[in-house]
Write a structure and sequence with these properties.
The complex is a heterodimer of chains A (about 375) and B (about 220).
Chain A lengths: L1 H9 L5 H33 L5 E5 L13 H8 L4 E15 L7 E8 L14 E5 H5 L7 E4 L4 E9 L8 E5 L1 H11 L12 E6 L4 H11 L4 E5 H6 L4 H33 L1 H9 L4 H33 L10 H20 L2 H6 L8
Parallel strand pairs in A: 3-7, 4-6
Antiparallel strand pairs in A: 1-8, 1-9, 2-3, 2-5, 2-8, 4-7, 5-6
Helix pairs in contact in A: 1-10, 2-8, 2-10, 2-11, 8-11, 10-11
Chain B lengths: L1 E9 L2 E9 L8 E5 L6 H8 L7 E3 L1 E2 L2 E2 L5 H11 E4 L11 H11 L4 H14 L15 H13 L5 E5 L7 H16 L4 E6 L10 E6 L2 E2 L2
Parallel strand pairs in B: 3-9, 3-10, 7-8, 8-9
Antiparallel strand pairs in B: 1-2, 1-4, 5-6, 10-11
Classes of the chains: A alpha+beta (about 375), B alpha/beta (about 220).
Chain lengths: ~375, ~220
Amino acid sequence: MSLAWKELVRRPGRFAVAGSALTLLVVLLLLLGGLLDGLFLGSTGAIRAQEGDVFVYSDTARDSFLRSRIGPDLRRTIEGTDGVGATGGLGVALLGGRTPGVDETLDVAVIGYERPPRGVPAPPRPGTGWADRRLADDGVRAGDVVAVGPAGVPVEVLGFVSDTSYLLQGALWVEPATWRAVQSSARPDASVADGVFQVIVVTAEGVPSGELASRIDAATGGRTSSLTKDEAILSLPGTREQNGVFTALIGVTLFVAGLVSALFFALVTLERTPLYATLKAIGAGSGRLLLGVVLQALAVASGAVLIGGAITLGLAEVIPAAIPVQLEPSRSVASAVLVVVTGALGGLVSLRRIVRVDPATAIA
Amino acid sequence: MEAVRKVYRSGDAEVVALDHADLVVGDHEMVTLVGPSGSGKTTLLSIAGGLLSATGGRVVVGGKDVSNLDPRQLTRFRQSEVGFVFQAVNLVPFLTARENLTVVGELAGRPRKATAARADRLLGELGLGPRAGNLAGQLSGGERQRVAIGRALMNEPKLVLVDEPTSALDTKLGESVMELLRAEITGRGVAAVVVTHDARMAHFTDRTVEIVDGRLQA
C-alpha cells in the first residue's frame, strides 16, 4: 500500500487528468443537487411548513390548490371523521405585487391560513401579513405596503419568516378574509365565499396518515381527494417531474464519474504491466497490487471531492439569486460519498488485468 | 532440478522449451548458464525461481520441493527463498534506492525496522550509502545495477537468479558487475545461476553449463 501512496505523492501529475475530470464532475454533481434542492425547497416551503398530516382537496381539483374548493358543510364532514384532530383551512392566490422602492413587479403567493405553520406567527389582523424572506431578497422591507393583484389590494408587511415560499414565489401569510379579498379582486370568476378554503389541513390522531386520508374520502362519499403531506408536496405542479429529471441527471453524472475512474485506472494498469510483473516476481500478490490501485482511486476521488466542493462553494457565492441553487449538507455529503465509492469501484475494474499479469514476463 | 520438462502447447503442436533438465547448484556455488537465444535459459531460470511451473520433473530449492506449489505458495516461496537480478534491472522508478530494497521486506511482511537496517547495510556494502535517498531515475546505470543486486539479496535468499547482467554493458563495466556479483553472492552462502549468452563472463563463476534447444549439455 505504501508503494501506491508513494507513487501518488511523487508523481501527482500522472493522476492529474483523471483528477481534473473527476473534479469537474463533482462540481456538476453538487450544482445539480443544489439546483434540485433549490427548486424543490423553493417550491414546497409553504406545504412543508404545515403542521398537519393530511391535505384534503375537493375531488374535482385533481390535487391542485387553485382548482380546489372546500365549503363549510364538507368541512364538517371531514372534521367528523374518526381520527381527525385539529384542522385548518388554507388558500393560495398567485399574483403580482408592487411596493414603493421596488421597480419590478414582485411574484407573490398570498396565502390565507387559520393554523400557523412552522415558523409563522398566528394570523395577523386584516390587511397585514408575514412575508417570506424571498420577498426581502426582492427588496421588500418590514413596514412596506405591498399592493397585490391588479386591484392593488394593500397588505402591510409586519415581518419576515423563512422557508415558506410556494412554487418559487415569496409567500405573504395573511388572515383568511384578506386572502379572499385578494383572490376575488384578482379573479372575480374564481372568487371564494366566506368559510370556503381551497384545502383543509388535518392532523391525524391515533391513525397513520395514509389510512386517515382514505377514511376522509370514504366519509365524504368521494367528494374529496385526500393526500398525505409527502403526496401533497409531490402533487405541486412540476415537482415530481423536476425530481425525476434531476435525479436521472445526477445518476448519469455518477455513472460517468465511475467510468472515468475505471477507464483511467485500466489504462494505468496496462501501462504498469512490466512493473507489476517485476513486483509479482519479487513477491507481490495480486491482492496487494489491486489494493494499491483502489487506494489510488480512493485518493484521487477524495481529492476531486475536496477541490470540487471548494469550487462549488465559491460558485454558489457568485451565482445570481435568480438561479435557485441551495447546497444542502445532507445531499452534498451523500454526493461526495457516492463519488468516492464509484471512484473506488472504478479502480476495482482493474482486478482481472492485474490477476493476469504473468511474473515470468519480468524475465524476458 | 531433476528431469525437469517444460512443454508449451499451441493447438495440436507441442514446443519443448526444456527437456529433462538435470542441474545441481550447491550452496556458495555460482554457475553460468550459456546458450543461444531460444535455447531455454530463461525458461530454466523462471522454473527455478518459481515464476513458472514445470510440466514434469522435480525442483528443490534450499531443501524445499517447489515442483507442485500453487500460485499463492509460489509467491511466498519467491518472497523468502529467491532473489532475482533482471536483465533490464527493473527498479521501481518512483522509489529511492533504499525503498527499492525495503519493498522486498514490505511485500514479505517483515518488521519495518529490521528491513530498513538490512537495506542500509546492503547499500553500504555495495558502496551506495550516500545514494540511498536518491530516486532510481537519479542513479547511474552501474548504481542501478548495484541496487538490483542489493534487492536480490534483501530477503536472504537460498538462490539468486541473474538474467543477462552484462548485456547492456561494455566489457569493462560488465566485468566489474560480474566481480561484484561474485563477491556479494558467493560470500553469503547463496547459490546462484547466471544466465548469459556472453561466454567471456564465464570465468567469474565456478562452472559453466551449456544449454542448447532445451537440453543441458553434459
